[in-house]
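Something for you to look into today, if you have time. Could you write out one complete protein record for me, on any chain you like? Leave the record below and I will have a look.
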Amino acid sequence: MIGVIGFDTTHLRADDGEALHAFDADELYGNRYPDDDSPPVNFCFSIGTWGDQMLMLDAGSGGIDHYDPNGWDHGSGYKGAAAWSLPDLAVHLGLIAARADELGSDDEAVAHAAAAALRTRMRRHDATVDESPFWGMVFEEFEECEEC
């Protein structure tokens, strides 16, 4: 759990040792209809949540996609890439965790400076940060700075 942004991966460690639940990626992302009874061939896994938003590991490409379960109706829940890979996502989350105290500071100037520096480092590491609605929403939560 990364409290400063409310990102939760605690569901990854099931107490009962069960494996992660595989989702039918084609159904979630609108590449086949829900009433198609053929066996799924493309899978994804929820690897973390932010509120009701989910980050999904694409089993085929290894990419991390942003999925909004509120837009489930035939693929409208796909919101784009959040990271090129699981290691890239780990870097993003590690950068956030390292700046958690500054980001959560009561001093607005400190929090905004930390958010701006964080966004810059994340952009340098992975270009998907610039275009990602997921990261845009995360940054909106703790920075209200349009030039950051």
Summary: The helical segments are 25-28, 86-98, 100-103, 108-125, 128-131, 133-142. The first strand starts at residue 7 and ends at 8.
